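Q: I'm writing up a methods section and want to include an example of the input and output format. Could you take the sequence below and give the corresponding predicted structure tokens, formatted cleanly so I can copy it straight into the document?
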Amino acid sequence: MNSRPLSIALCLALTARAPSSPSPITVDYTVRVDPGDLSGIAVEMQIRNAPARFHVAMVTHTEYDDQYWRYLTEFRGESGHGIVQIAREDSSLWRVAAPAGLITLRYRVRFPTAPPMQQASWKAHLTPAGGLLGGPHSFLYVVGAERSPVRVTVVLPDGWRIVTGLDTADAPRTFTAPNVETLVDSPMLVGLVRSWRFDVGGVPHQVSYLGHANGTAFDTTLFVGNVERLAREAIAMFGRMPYRNFQFLFEDGTYGGL
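A: Here is the clean output for your methods example:
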């Protein structure tokens, strides 16, 4: 019996390559604050390895939903290989159809205004001195790619600083998050921010403060000292620090907080 054809077939079967899995979707965000127009922010999403059809959405918070999708405007897309079509399917959900590959989405979020000294501290907003960005109020995300790492670059007016709990990247004012949940749970305090630092057990803690034109002067040493005492008591109670660093964000002229 001649077994050669069978052995060749087995060899070919063993050496055949398995079909490659599609490359994961990655998203790079750029957030821009125009000093000449502080009514909101402009956001750009560079989506790599995008399929021909996918959805993007705005996060709705499980405890409170501020419905910032109501303020999303000028939503459009670009691709070097054809037309990008965007259709709204629900209040906070959009369908995108375009040639697969690299797609750029752009939109603007026009922040609602609040009466003087009645701005909620957790809601994204801007003033001539600065404000709060990020969180569930600023970012769309690709549905199905929530667990993929993302990168964010923030373009700010001259003289403004940015403070956030996100990890810093290898470029100025650029940060990374391991997933969308971390991204929207890490607000960004921007503007004419003052900061102080203290360490507990070798772990850095930073207290950052954004002032207000109608704010009252206070003893910053006492203020920071009280925050440090609270931090030390909390750590003593729970026994450990489950973080590499911690950012305290304070803004004068606002109410509430987390």
